[in-house]
Amino acid sequence: MGREARRTLTEPDALRALAHPVRYEVLNYLIAEGVATASQCARAVGDTPSNCSYHLRALAKAGLVAPDGSADGRERPWRALVTGFDVPPDADPESPAGKQAALIAALAVQRDQRLVRGWMERRDRAPAQWRDADHYGLYTLRLTPDELRELGDRIDALVRPYIAATRDDAPAGAEAVHLGFHGFPISTDEEAPDATAPAAP
Q1: Which of 23, 106, 130, 162 has the most CB atoms in a 10 Å sphere around its CB?
Q2: What is the mean pLDDT for each group of 10 consecutive residues in the chain (201 residues)?
């Protein structure tokens, strides 16, 4: 297992850099792929090499990526300096950090939905072994906040050995796989009901 370098991004420069949709996509691509040139990043995220070069330099300035050694000295490859990242969950929503954290969280949700839609659109053309292995499950649970937190921690611990950026024992045939899960209360009430209060007759 490779060394994990997951960060909670609190630095203004890092939050500001990652709150851009192309930079968000480029960083995620580098985390999954390891090392890539600006041209490779451009093909992956649907942008131009010159734009991706600019965004890679912005990510480097924020300490999120760095140039990697080039064998031929022509096009410079880049690598991510993190294997994953979080944003401050409780930042003041009116502060610059809070607004950028909210934007990054929204980009994460958009990316998740886009990847799911993309898979559904091409699923019937995918190899049979991947169609047989894929999952798309939706569940309605009844949990306390502590139980939800514990469940999330247990799922994270189960998934962590397979993280693409740190797994160095992947067998032949392994590919980058998107796995996302969400857990939040369905209620739209401003305040959750008091669990200790007596039930209404």
Answers
A1: 23
A2: 82 93 96 93 95 96 89 79 88 88 93 94 96 93 96 95 92 93 80 45 35
Q: How many C-alpha atoms does 71 have within 13 Å on its Cβ side?
A: 3
Q: Is residue 143 part of a domain?
A: no
Residue 101 lies in a domain: yes
> Per the structure block, which two tokens stand in for 137?
């499950």
Decide if 13 contacts 57 (C-beta within 8 A).
Answer: no
Q: Which two tokens stand for residue 104?
A: 């990054």
pTM: 0.81
Q: What angle do CA 186, 123, 49 make, to 5 degrees?
A: 90
Boundaries of domain holding 36: 6-136
Residue 163 falls inside a structural domain: no
How many CB atoms within 10 Å of residue 142?
Answer: 5
How many domains does the structure of the chain reveal? 1
State how far the Cα of 97 lies from the Cα of 12, in Å rounded to an integer: 7
| Contact of 63 with 143, CB cutoff 8 Å | no
Domain for residue 125, yes or no? yes
Residue type, 92: D
